[in-house]
Amino acid sequence: MSGTRRSPATGAFTVAGLVFLWAPLLLVALFSFHSTGSLTFPFEGFSTRWYDEVFSNEVIRTAAQNSLVVATSTALITVLLGTLAAYGLTRSSSRLRGPLALLFFLPITLPGLFIGIALLVAFSRVEWTLSLATVTIAHLVYVFPFFFLVARAALERLDPALEETAADLGAGRWTVFRRVTLPQVWPVLVGAACLAFALSFDEFVITFFVIGPDSTLPLYIWSGLRRTIDPSINAISTLLLAFTILLFVVTFALTTWSERRRRGRGLAEDPLVLTGPAEGAA
Amino acid sequence: MSASEPRVRLEGITHRFGSETVLEDVSLDIAPEELLTLLGPSGCGKTTLLRIVAGFERPSEGRVLIDGEDVTGLPPNRRPTNLVFQRPTLFPHLDVFSNVAFGLQVAGVSRAQQRERVAEALTLVRLEGYEKRRSHELSGGQMQRIALARALVNRPAVLLLDEPLSALDLKIRLEMEVELRRVHRETGATFVYVTHDQREAMALSDRLVVIDQGRVEQVGAPTEVYSRPASVFTAQFVGNANVLPVEVLEAGDGDALLRLGTQTRRIEYSDPAPGPAWLVLRPEAVRVSGAAANNGTGESLRGVVRDAAYRGTGFSYRIELSEFDAYVKAETRGAAGHEVDQPVSVDWDADACWLLPRDERETVPPAPTAAEDLDDQPNRREEETNA
Fold first, then answer.
1. DSSP state of A46
2. For chain A, which residues make up each domain, given as ranges?
C-alpha cells in the first residue's frame, strides 16, 4: 500500500460512482418509509403506513400472488428441464454435444423485446389465450439458458470417475444420479433455481407482451407509476429489492458452500491432515 | 466349476478408438486366486484392457468370459468385478462407512450385515474404527485403502486395480505393496493389476502379462519373464537389459561361440540358432574392471565410463563401448568405483546370457520405452467422442 500514491481524484471518482449506483435505490427505500405522501425532501418523519397500504391492497396482493405463482412454476420447471438437459449433454458422447449445448444457452443473448414479440406472434398463431401460463412459458424461454449454464458448469466439474465408481459398485444409471451425482451438485442447482426464480419474479419486458388481462408485481408498479406517484410504489419496490437481494444471497451462499465442500478433497494435501494415525501401521 | 476353469477368459479382444487400434487380438486366461499383472508403458492399452474387463469399454471384437459366462455386453454394474481406480475415488459427500457400504446398499444387503461386512473390510485394510471419517480427513494412502475395502466388501469374482499406487509417495507405495500381497493372500480373490512399473509388477505378481502397443509380448512368472524375455522390448522394459547385436558362429551343446564386433567370445548356452542374434545382458551380470586387468586377452570388451551413480549396494554405470557403437549399463556391487571418463574393461558372467533372434539388417536395438510416470488415459472424453 505504501508504495502506491493515490491521487485524491481516484477516491472522489470511486465515491461518485458508488453514489450514482446506490443513491437512487436508497432514496426509493427511504421514501417508502415517509410519513407523508410527498416524494421529495424535506423528509418529514418515518412511518410504515405505505407498507400497511400495500399489504391491504387487494390488487397488489393479487399481482404479488401472480408473480409468485409464475416465478415458482418457472423455477421448478427450469430445474427439471435444465438439469436433464445439462446432465444429458455432459454425459453424452455424441458429436452433437457442443452444438446442442450452444443452442441451449445461446438464447441468453436474445433481447427481451425480441423474445416478447416473437412469443406474442407465436401464441397468436396457435391461438393460445394470453394468461399466466403463457407468461410462464415465456419466462422459461428467458430463464432456461441461465440455469443451464450454471448446471452444466457444475456437472462438468464433477469427476466422471466417481460416477464410474458407483456404476462399478453395482449402481444403475438412476441410482448413480440419485446417490452420487445429485448429492454433489444439489446446492448449485438450488442456487441456480433461486436465480431463475428471481429473474422471473422481476421480469417486465417479456411479461408485458404476453400477459393478457392479469398483472404481475412489476407490471403493477409500472401501471401505478403512470396513474399516481405515491410512496406505496416505493414500498413495493423496496420489498421487491429486498426479496431479490435475499435470493441472490442464498444463491451465492449455496454455490460457495458447495464449492468449498467440493474442495474438501484438497485438504488431504495439507500436511497437517496427512499425518493420519494409521499410516505407520502398514 | 472345475479347478482348471479360468476365472476370467479373454478371447481375441481387439479394440479401436476411431481409426487407432489400441488392443490387438488379446487372448488370456486368468486363474482363480491368481494375482496377474498387466505391465506395459504408458499408452500400451493395458488400462483399456482392464476397463474392458470391468465393462466400461466394449471391445470392438472378442469376448470376455467370467466363470464361463459371457459378460461382453453387460454394463459394469451387472458384472461380478470391482475396480480400484488410479486416484482414490471416494465419494466426497459420504463418510468412510457409507463409501465402503455403497455396493452393499445398492445390492440391498441388510443394515446389520452392512455394519459387519464394512467392519470386516476395514479390518482387512487395517483401518478399523474409521467408519465416521470423511475422505478429506484421510491421507492419500488411507484413501486408497478405503477404496480397496470398498471394492473388496462386495466379494467380487475379480478385483481390478488400475495403477492404484501410482499417485502415492514411494515410501507409502512400498508399504502398500506389502499390504496388497497380504490382502491377496487373505482373501484368495483373483486380482488383475495394471502398472507401468516393472519393479512393482515383479514384486506383486504371480504372473506378468507384458503388453506393448496393444499386443501381448509375453506371459509368464516374473522370474521367467525376467530371465528369459521373449522379445527385445520385454528384455529392455522388464529387465532394463543391455541388448547387443552379435553373430552366433558355432552352436554346440551347452556352449556357443559368439562374435561381438571384432571379438569372439564363448558363452554357456544350449543350441542357439546360428546367425545374427541379439545378446541380452542384464546390468547386474556385467562386470566392470580397470582397463589394465584383462587387456590383450581378447576376452573382454573395452569401454569408457560415461556416467556413474552410487546406489548404496554398489554403482550403476553407463559405459560407452570402444569396439561397438553402443552403451552398456552395468550394476556392480561393492564400494570401489570407477571414475567418469576412465577407461575400463567390460566382462560378464558366462551363464547370464540370453539370445534373441535378430534380423540381419538390424544392428541397433529399438530405443527402450521409458517407463515414465504418465497417465495412461490422457483424455477419455476425447476417446469416447472418437469412438
1. B
2. 62-260
A169 and B102 within 8 Å at the Cβ level: the answer is: yes
Long-range CB pairs of B333-342, under 8 A, 24+ apart, other chains included:
B337/B308, B337/B310, B338/B288, B338/B290, B338/B305, B338/B308, B339/B305, B339/B308, B340/B305, B340/B306, B340/B307, B340/B308, B341/B304, B341/B305, B341/B306, B342/B291, B342/B304, B342/B305
Q: What angle do CA A45, A50, A53 make, to 5 degrees?
A: 150
Minimum Cα–Cα distance from A271: chain B residue: B139
Does the beta-carbon distance from B141 to A264 stay under 8 Å?
A: no
Residues 6+ apart with CB under 8 A from A247: A194, A195, A197, A198, A201
Task: Residue A261: list chain B partners with CB under 8 A.
Answer: 92-93
Rg of chain B over Cα atoms, rounded to whole angstroms, equals 24
Burial (CB < 10 A; 0-12, 13-18, 19+), residue B349, is middle
Cell numbers for B247: 553373430
Topology, domain A62-260: MetI-like fold (1.10.3720)
Alpha carbon of B319 to those of B332, B344, B346: distances in Å? Answer: 12, 8, 9
Domain boundaries, chain B: 8-227, 241-357
Cβ distance A179 to B102 less than 8 Å, yes or no, reads: yes
Q: Are B302 and B343 in contact (CB under 8 A)?
A: yes
DSSP string, B276-291: EEEEEE-GGGEEEEET
Q: pLDDT: is A47 or B356 the higher one?
A: B356
User: Who's near A82: CB < 8 A, 6+ residues apart?
Assistant: A144, A147, A148, A151, A192, A196
The pLDDT, as a whole number, for residue A263 is 63
Interface residue A124 vs chain B (CB under 8 A): no
What's the CATH number for B241-357?
Answer: 2.40.50.140
Separation in Å, CA of B245 to nearest CA in chain A: 46
- CA of A179, closest CA in chain B: separation in Å? 9
Q: Which of A159, A171, A281 sits opposite B106 (nearest CB)?
A: A171
Q: Which of residues 12-71 of A touch B (CB under 8 A)?
A: none
CA distance A271 to chain B (A): 9
CB contact under 8 Å between A282 and B175, yes or no, is: yes
Q: How confident is residue A277, by pLDDT bands cut at 50, 70 and 90?
A: very low
**Distance between A189 CA and the closest CA of chain B, angstroms:** 16
The string of DSSP codes covering B30-57 is E-TT-EEEEE--TTSSHHHHHHHHHTSS
What is the number of other CB atoms lying within 10 angstroms of the CB of residue B319?
A: 27
The per-residue pLDDT of chain A, averaged, comes to 82
Walk along chain B (387 residues) and give the pLDDT tens digit of each residue. 445 689 999 999 999 988 889 999 999 999 998 999 999 998 899 999 999 999 999 999 999 999 989 999 899 999 999 999 998 899 988 999 999 999 999 999 999 999 999 999 999 888 988 999 988 889 888 999 999 999 999 999 999 999 999 888 888 888 889 889 998 998 888 999 999 998 899 999 999 999 999 999 999 999 999 988 998 899 988 888 888 888 888 887 778 888 887 778 888 887 778 888 888 888 888 888 876 655 445 567 788 888 888 888 888 888 888 877 778 888 888 777 788 888 888 888 777 888 888 887 777 766 655 444 333 333 333 333 333
The second-level CATH assignment, the architecture, of B8-227 is: 3-Layer(aba) Sandwich (3.40)
Decide if B8-227 and B241-357 have a common fold.
Answer: no
